[in-house]
Amino acid sequence: MKPKLTLKKIAKELDVSISTVSKALRDSSEIGEETRAKIKAFAKHYNYKPNNIALSLKNRKTKTIGIIIPEIVHHFFTTVISGVEKVANEMGYNVLVCLSDNSFDKEVLNMEMLANGSTDGFILSLAKETMQKGDYHHLAEVINQGMPCVLFDRVAEDISCDKVIIDDVTGGKKAVQHLIDIGCRKIALISTVDYVSVGKLRTHGYKQALAENGISINEDLILKIEEMEDSEKEIEAFLKEREVDGVFAVNEHFAISAVKTIQDQGKNVPEDVSVIGFTDGELSKRFIPSLTTVSQHGMRMGEESARLLIEKLERTPSEEDYYKTIIVETGLVVRDSTKSRK
Amino acid sequence: MKPKLTLKKIAKELDVSISTVSKALRDSSEIGEETRAKIKAFAKHYNYKPNNIALSLKNRKTKTIGIIIPEIVHHFFTTVISGVEKVANEMGYNVLVCLSDNSFDKEVLNMEMLANGSTDGFILSLAKETMQKGDYHHLAEVINQGMPCVLFDRVAEDISCDKVIIDDVTGGKKAVQHLIDIGCRKIALISTVDYVSVGKLRTHGYKQALAENGISINEDLILKIEEMEDSEKEIEAFLKEREVDGVFAVNEHFAISAVKTIQDQGKNVPEDVSVIGFTDGELSKRFIPSLTTVSQHGMRMGEESARLLIEKLERTPSEEDYYKTIIVETGLVVRDSTKSRK
DNA sequence: TACTGGGACGAAAACGTTTTCGTGTTGAAA
DNA sequence: TTTCAACACGAAAACGTTTTCGTCCCAGTA
Q: A99 to chain B: which residues are within 8 Å by CB?
């Protein structure tokens, strides 16, 4: 086991000073041709690599960005990570991933850990509990310390920072409009409780689409789910008691539960009831019937978030600050869970 | 925007030395009651938190572990990350996630980045390309530098380090034994090319089960897939030409493609053909019919890996070194894609 | 010969900690 | 009065870099 090579060791070995070694390796013109060549050869031969930690301390930059997501098993978030990773790596950054498990406390803890020098900036999507509490002091604090943040997907209005979101209202509208176009009139909505911003916005889209087509809004056809755990049973109970010809679900799980329930009732998807989900999930593609969905382009969101953050990180502080909000447009991917246009 | 508080600033503010501040905050008995109280009160009030980078440099520990996985969109790997994260956080560690995209070069690059001080140790699953090349010099190097590594799932025999694997042979055997038990005799295997260790081992299990039950092995019933991209078409072509009553697929995607193909042929799953997959995937649970699978317990693997690594990290170097291999047992989860025992 | 300029290098500070080893002051014992 | 221990605190080194500012020496010029 040989310990890592440092400038000091090279200096001692070659009988020059540390500064000479450092300069030689950085191709400074201060150092004579001969010594420079000798030092570089030595460093190359023994595979010298500068210590990142020391560099971080010196430069006050870690070249690391932290990303905090509510849950990793949600396929959407993994595609976001993938996008962040891609751009970050291209720009020479590392990615530190933390999970908040949708818990406010864990989110705060994670941010505190990472804020003490571990990362140069944050990319995050708020925990459900955080949105419920509406307590964003931890975000305000790190931003106030001059650490750039990018919020994505689950964002908070009251925080001023860069944001990357999808147009949830239009996304929801697109889905419902499609259902209307193929002839559905009794369209159910399976959403989340309102404090989850995306659930609220997609609900808006749902209502807008109905209104624009002169269909009255029936609150009884709207289900708001709080706990993922019980969603399957809730959806089952909800659908069994209602006569619908279309379902718009704000995520993949709800959509699939809806399909199952409908099939269990002896009805067919899409002949009797058309179903649209809201997701990028693998599940939708491979499910039978494959699901028509509003796609979120998680990868794109991750890429945009990373670009936004790095751009801010590499700007000189003198340049004036303003915050952008990037809206990633949604797409409607028509598959087999909806009737074809008639 | 207020910059971060440091020991130096506290010292200047309170007109004491830096060392006094440091000692006071660490409750050293060297410092008088009064000064100590004053310093602690000040630090608390202004929310002082020590700088992680400086600590890392001083202690030569980063309290960060790096995990490198081949692809994040594979659900199995995300559950592993989740397990690693959980244990790491409990022990006060951060997790740095890198993706190799199954590329040898990216794997090497990632390791080099992280090895220069960014992490204290590694947890990784080898890229497909790495296994194909059989080139593990990058691993040997970091291990030789005294950086602990834990390999999981896709491991290499020739590297000596801790490992966490599942018993792929027994897992495969279990699956095929189950198929035999429910009456299948013409059992197809859909596997990967042999240099992916898990594919090879599960193939062993398949053959063992057949042999032990006196069923002759028909190589024509074994399909080895190289490229994920074309898997769907390959599986379709393969199954269309063969008469089988059972299929064992070494992963989720293959299993689902198999089910689709079988249904397209007008046959039923599980009545005509029973299908078993090998995975933890969400897909299997929610697919219709839900898939009987050999479960890999990714979360457990992640937890065990993290525990193993941290244990090694926190051991004094004097204690003698030996390498463990933990085998996480597989479970057979019977769902609807296999006939019931007759 | 004396001065100047530049080439080639080294010393030291700085980043933010922790820790070892002083050092000065006090009080009590001799 | 002297001596010594205990106490309370500070100086400085160390972790591995980068960078600013010397310093030394030699060649060229007057």
A: 82, 85
Q: Which two tokens stand for residue A211?
A: 């209104």
- A327 in reach of chain B (CB within 8 A): no
**B14 Cβ contacts chain D strand, under 7 Å:** no
A175: left (phi over 0), alpha (psi -120 to 50) or beta: alpha
Residue range B231-257, pLDDT digits in tens:
889 999 999 999 999 999 998 889 999
> Exposed (0-12), middle (13-18) or buried (19+): which is B40, by Cβ within 10 Å?
middle
The set of residues, in sequence order, having a beta carbon less than 8 Å from that of A176 and lying 6+ positions away, is A187, A205, A206, A209, A210, A248, A276
- Alpha carbon distance B104, B114 (integer Å): 16
Distance from CA of A195 to the nearest CA of B (A): 26
The integer distance in angstroms from the CA atom of B19 to the C1' atom of C27 is: 26
CB contact under 8 A, A2 and B144: yes
Q: What is the residue-averaged pLDDT of chain B?
A: 92
Does residue A179 have a pLDDT over 80?
Answer: yes
Out of 3.30.70.920, 3.40.1440.10, 3.40.50.2300, 3.30.70.580, the CATH code matching A168-297 is 3.40.50.2300
CB pair distance less than 8 Å for B94 and A95: no
Tokens for A303, please give them: 């890429």
pLDDT digits (tens, 9 = 90+) for A96-109: 999 999 999 999 99
Kindly report the CATH number that applies to the domain delimited by A60-166+298-327: 3.40.50.2300
CB pairs under 8 A between A and B: 130
Q: How far apart are CA A68 and CA A104, in angstroms?
A: 12
A320 or B335, greater pLDDT: B335
Helix H segments across chain A? 7-14, 18-25, 33-45, 52-59, 75-90, 104-115, 128-133, 137-144, 168-181, 197-212, 231-240, 252-264, 282-286, 298-313
Q: Report the alpha-carbon distance of residue A228 to residue A34 in Å, rounded.
A: 68
Question: Which residue type does B300 have?
Answer: R
pLDDT at B190 over 90: yes
pLDDT digits 0-9 by tens, A257-298: 999 999 989 999 999 999 999 988 878 888 888 999 999 999
State what percent of residues in chain B have pLDDT above 70.
98
Residue A57 Cβ < 7 Å to strand D: yes
* pTM of the model as a whole: 0.89
Model confidence at B280, pLDDT cuts 50, 70, 90, reads confident
What's the whole-number average pLDDT of chain A?
Answer: 92
Tell me the pairing of strands A94-99 and A325-328.
unpaired
CA distance A335 to A332: 9
Domain B168-296 has CATH 3.40.50.2300: yes
> Would the CB atoms of A72 and B78 count as touching at under 8 Å?
yes
Contact at 8 Å (CB) between B182 and B342?
yes
Domain definitions of chain B by residue range: 7-50, 62-165+298-328, 168-296
Task: Tell me the sheet residues that pair with A98.
Answer: A68
**Dist. CA B98–CA A3, nearest whole Å:** 24
Domain B62-165+298-328 = CATH 3.40.50.2300? yes
Chain A residue numbers touching B255 (CB-CB < 8 A): none
pLDDT, one tens digit per residue, over A74-124 is: 888 999 999 999 999 999 999 999 999 999 999 999 999 899 999 999 999
